[in-house]
Amino acid sequence: EDKGSVDDTTKLWEILSEYQPRTVEAIQKQIVTHIEYTLARSRFTIDHHSAYMATAYSVRDRLLEYFNDTQQYFNEVFPKRVYYLSIEYLLGRTLANALTSLNISGVYRESLRELGFVLEDLYNQEQDAALGNGGLGRLAACYLDSAAALDLPLWGYGLRYNYGMFTQSIIEEKQSEFPDFWLSRGFPWEIERLDVVYAVNMYGFVRKATPAELEDGYKGKFVWEPDMEVLAVAYDLPIPGYKTNTTLNLRLWQSKPSHDFDLMSFNRGNYTAAIALRQECENITSVLYPDDSTPQGRELRLKQQYFFASASLQDIVRRYRKSGRSLLEFGQYNAIQINDTHPAVAIPELMRILLDEEGLPWGEAWAVCVQTFAYTNHTVLPEALETWPVPVMEKLLPRIMQIIFDINCTFLSCVRKRFPGDESRVERVSIIAEGHTQLVRMAHLGIVGSHAVNAVARLHGEIIQDRLFRDFYEMFPKRFTYVTNGVTPRRWLLECNPYLSHVITDTLGSEDWTKDIEQLCRLKDHATSRKLQQQWLMAKRLAKERLILFLKTTQLKDDPNPPTLDPNAMFVVHIKRIHEYKRQLMNILQVLLRYLRLKDYAELVTGTESIPHVVPRVIIFAGKAAPAYTRAKEIIQLIVSAARLINNDPVTRNSLVVFFVADYNVSKAEILIPAADISEHISTAGMEASGTSNMKFALNGANIIGTYDGANIEIAEEVGKEKLFMFGANAKEVEDVRAAYARGEAETIPTDLDRVISFIESGALLSKEERARGITGAGAYRAICDEMRSGTDYWLVAHDFQSYIKAQAQADRAFANPKAWTENSINLTGGMAHFSSDRSVKEYADRIWKVKPCPVPGQTGSIEEE
Ligand code: GL2
Prior knowledge:
Elements: H1 10-16, H2 24-38, H3 48-77, E1 81-85, E2 89-92, H4 95-102, H5 105-115, H6 119-123, E3 129-131, H7 135-149, E4 154-159, E5 167-171, E6 174-178, E7 191-202, E8 205-208, H8 211-215, E9 222-225, E10 228-240, E11 247-257, H9 259-264, H10 271-283, H11 299-322, H12 330-333, E12 334-339, H13 346-357, H14 362-372, E13 373-376, E14 387-389, H15 390-396, H16 398-418, H17 423-429, E15 432-433, E16 439-441, H18 442-448, E17 452-455, H19 458-468, H20 470-475, E18 480-482, H21 489-495, H22 498-508, H23 530-553, E19 570-575, H24 584-604, E20 617-622, H25 630-647, E21 656-661, H26 666-675, E22 678-681, H27 693-699, E23 703-707, H28 712-719, E24 725-727, H29 731-742, H30 751-761, H31 768-772, H32 782-790, H33 797-815, H34 818-830, H35 837-849
Parallel strand pairs: 1-4, 1-12, 4-11, 12-13, 13-17, 17-18, 19-20, 19-22, 20-21, 22-23, 23-24
Antiparallel strand pairs: 2-3, 5-6, 7-10, 8-9, 10-11, 14-16, 15-16
């Protein structure tokens, strides 16, 4: 390696050990320097966006000081390291988070004020980095934040998609998707590493190594002769630890064509074909799959997965090899967490590297793999359990397919030994599903190749042990565990809710709770204090005012007759991906019932401005539907058309307002969550593995209307279930009800639900355009109405409807008593310590990864990369 020609590095070190001073003058100088030299702007052309960019670059400079020191320190100490492999990271914005972590927001605010800018305005210039779909990707981002705060020697690996999660617009009351050009104005936080590049093989064939190759010291017995070689280029994103010297790395791979390959390929001289091939390579990291729950049976997705796994594994092995240690000890120094099955192909990829490139025998390589890998399952939805057709994998990844067959063969012979004669068991657990087309079951590969398999909440853990992976649990009971999800209190309270954070810090006497989350419990001692209750209410009010302002300047901007938004109303928020199992449908049907009842009531009390004795509600929905998921899109349309009808009704508009906020993302969540009085987490029990927004809401003192599902159950246990509005069939009952449906025992639908469905069927929700086109009746909602009337709907909307209405009524009554409501709200926040991602990550570190913190000492000054 080229170490440069400097013999005496004293001078270099001297300069590099001077860190950016944290003074107003130094910060201003740095920002202005970036304006002039990085952005080539003058004082005449500086706008908000360039001010944001220059500020971001100046903060990045500071992050890099910690980043370099951290990597240098890890290399010196060589602790056991963790690698978190996730095909999604829903990061959101970075500036506020970086400033908070470095503890320099105040001095930056002041520096910018003198330059003529308001820091908060600059925050809004930043595009969200939306390299994820939903909870799974956001969880990965929270875990990076916590790992850094806890000084764990962890790196994240992911993909640098050119287009992240699609942008959603509502056009003619329907969802339309547009590409997310998140990089178009530059992304100042990353470091492009053109020198960190790996070649990833695809297509071609596998042959045996020739005797001559073996004599030459060729390591493996097999040689993969690829037909395509794609380069993976690294982009590093510093992940600052909150108030610590540790700054971790999220390494994202971008695909790039390989020049060598152009020259050697059969396309030599065929310019057009060569360009097309180059394009194919670039396409691999072009777009994030906009689907939360169903694997696209498309080759490109598998290409993404393998590209990701191979580049990451090559990088990890190379780093370890540099230490000179034996590969047999690889698992003692490296833990690799596989975030769902998307990166599970990393298991055969590590086998390939160990066998073919490093020459380890099968048994030793396999022991290393199992010791290294751990797999997190995030869903029980059958359509989300990935499988790949064997012919597809064989064509794209011939050597990997061969290794998977070998893994399966060894595994199945163990099964046969343990359970002689039980061929149906063998069939059930096999990594290969037999059938017309053989399929590779990625979850089975993940389980067989890992020493730990974890669920993401307790109920989810029970379901995977008892049902989903029961056969595996019987074979490897010790492998199975659960780690209940958590969320970072930095982004999800300290940063997004400055109002409440002030009150909490003031009450507890210090800001220690932001790092030592157990401190929050002490809030409960003050829950009945008048003073705290008043401050608490005021904080909630400020968050609501901020949301109202946001709605007025976005959603309602062009509305000639906007509804009035009263901060005293109960704000009810239902935000998450749109999916039948999450039952946004049940909510909007309940809202329509509320509307009809308000109309009934108004007839009795005509002549008043607003309807007396009714708690006014502002109800907000937001979320994206996978583009190909028709029913989810119909549900969005139903919400939007119901909102149009309700918001324009002069009789009810002071008592009920409904919004569908378009293009839900992390930064919108940061505005919506602090403003909520209540949030909805009403999935059909047994379907939501955990849920994480439930934690964010309760952390911000919002109550939960929820089912006994996912982490709702544990939240209810922590805070006391009487403090929440829990309802509906539990997971066991859901199974029983479905069994009855399957026997043909349909239920009669509740009268209230019948009324709402009849209302929809009367054509009440049709738009002017639809009427003009002669559409009548339920229109676009025909299928939804029929399903509700069937009395056997799979998601149990009809079954749970009545208890849901009851829970809503309880919430109305409770909200009418502000004192008790506020006391309860304080107790909710006070009870949420357990759901900090610091706790989750600590559990992973202790129980699964077996790694210890490696705190980086005070700034040392170094120049080495990693
Ligand atoms: C999910 C689960 O659906 C959700 O319940 C869970 O909280 C998160 C994080 O563990 O994972 N699985 C999944 O594929 N997505 C999720 O949100 N997208």
